[in-house]
Amino acid sequence: MDQLTNIDLQKELSDGLKFVREGRILELSSMSLAQSTLVTECFFVGHPVTPDIRGRALRSVLRWSVDSLMPGGEHSWLSSEWRYYNTLNSFFIDGMKVGELAEKMGIAHQTLYLARTDAIIELTKTVVAELRSSLDQVRRKNYFLEDQYLLHTPLARKLLRLLTAFNQSMPFQLASEILDGENEGEKLSKAFVELTNSAMVISDPSSTTVLVHPEVARFLTFNLDHAERKGWHESIARYFLKKQNYFEAAQQLANARLPQKSADILLKHSDAISNNMQIEDMQKLIYQFEQNDLNDDTWIRIQLLAGDNLKLLGDLDSALTIYQKGLAAPTVELKAEAYFKRGMALFLTNFDEALAHYNHTIRLLTESNSDQNLLTRVYIARAQLFMREERLEEAEESMQLASSLNIDQDRKVFSYLQSAWYYLAIKQGDLRKAVEFGQQAWLAATELGDSVRMAEMSHNLGMVYAQLGEIENSKNYLNKSTALAQDIMNIEMVALNHKTMGGLHFVQSEYEKAIEKYLIAWDMLSEMGNLNWLTHTAYDLAEAYGQVGNVDKFWVFFNKGLDLAEQTGFSALAKDLEILREGFGYKSFKDSLNDRQKLIFSYLQENEKISNREYQNLAGISPRQSLRDLQDLLEKGMLEKQGKGRSVYYTLSVNSI
């Protein structure tokens, strides 16, 4: 194409339009234009390009180029602005005869021939500009996709539209079920083969799952009939409900413009959706609802659910704002639920406000004698609030009130109740009672299939059995908790289980195994940035390395622990680390340095920083030995590295000052 002059290109375009009018696809495929980027950009990557496909692609590009000459506004046969477009489109693309076209345009035959020449000159400018810039690539490809789509049978096109509406890989059996009744299965299979041969859909090797090509999906999404699409989305939603994929079912109903049904599914199955790590997706769907889409009761409930999601995502302020709107709910039940949820959000930040919200919720529910399950949960939450403040008598009183209500039939609330009794027993130091309550909570969660609560209670039982010295029971529940936590992607729970397992190995004097488990926990907690548990794990590792006599590693985690204790404000743990150091007979960190490293420390007592070269000159050592000494001090936590490249220098860490 680079070697063609404008005159050559005009001839190429003129011939190409002639071939389009006459339907000569193979001649189109052999033209220079058919090898240009204008055409090659239309093809799917990796799909074989036959002469037929190449010729049809050039025809689509020529149709695009002619349409590019179309001026804005309403179409006119007589306007001079429309002359170029009318001349090329009507004659070459639509196949109109010269006499008919000249009459419509109100011009003589000779004028029409002259207009054709001028139009092709203008068309050449458009094509040259696109060859240079490729600014209209998406629209060019859409012309090709439209032509390819229209080549298929009506059934194949319908299957393609269904797959586009589904918007993900689709079981072929489901497509068959949705389209069944109007077409035979054999015809549908042929339609599927049509589409795969043209690369408009892709499938797995066994053809059990199919997916519309993403570029085709983008093109077709804006060309789907609403009524047809609505029926498909409803059918797909029923499929997802059977599969217990509740978020996708709700999404499909929202796509079908059935917001009330979509919201009902979110409210009924919010726990399952959350357990499937789809909170952000659920929140995006909730934000699509308008107040007039839903009845008043559902609107308030869906807003409260949005608040729950925000709280789980760590946006407490936004959650409190949403809950506050629910305080004006028209029914006692919804008003009470809003007060309760707001109290739960205030639980960790404001004891007095949280208690006031709980007490008001209790008054609302007892005066109206409604929703005993919610009342039970409020008593439990209030008890947990008292436990946090070590007001154990008041906590037990609130737990007794919760237990007095007839909630045995609701296994979910029963699980909450037994779990709360477990924590109270731990606070009261009655570990055997804690085991009894923990077992009941775990069994109820298992009956409900609540993986989150099962993982939590398995961990708790592992902890209490460890305190009772029943090592095998402890390991059994910790392993259960780890497997469940991995399934629900609760990495923090996995890390804590490894930390606890390390402690079990430690008490059995299996120090190397303890270190192995502690290090797994350390890596996970470091990645998560959980400074609280990371600080305690640093202590565990220092203690374990001290037991095996690995002094270097002891100092590494001793200093990491001191640094973390300062960041988190755990002054008691810093004191414990010092007691640990004295217990192992380690005089001080500085006393563990060799003579060369002591030179660095002395130098940095008087100077702000030291470079690698300065240390080489100070100690009279090689560059390689200097790097080894400095790296050792970095690992031990004495030094901090600053700068980059040749500007690197070292300063004393907080732990060394």
Task: Summarize the structure in short.
The protein has helices at 6-22, 25-29, 37-40, 51-67, 83-93, 98-105, 109-133, 137-151, 154-166, 172-179, 185-197, 214-221, 226-242, 246-255, 259-268, 270-275, 279-288, 296-312, 316-326, 332-346, 351-368, 372-388, 392-404, 411-427, 431-448, 451-467, 471-487, 491-507, 511-528, 531-547, 551-568, 571-583, 595-606, 612-619, 623-635, and strands at 170-171, 201-203, 209-212, 639-642, 649-652. With 657 residues, it is mainly α.
Secondary-structure map with pairings?
Blueprint: H1 6-22, H2 25-29, H3 37-40, H4 51-67, H5 83-93, H6 98-105, H7 109-133, H8 137-151, H9 154-166, E1 170-171, H10 172-179, H11 185-197, E2 201-203, E3 209-212, H12 214-221, H13 226-242, H14 246-255, H15 259-268, H16 270-275, H17 279-288, H18 296-312, H19 316-326, H20 332-346, H21 351-368, H22 372-388, H23 392-404, H24 411-427, H25 431-448, H26 451-467, H27 471-487, H28 491-507, H29 511-528, H30 531-547, H31 551-568, H32 571-583, H33 595-606, H34 612-619, H35 623-635, E4 639-642, E5 649-652
Antiparallel strand pairs: 1-3, 2-3, 4-5
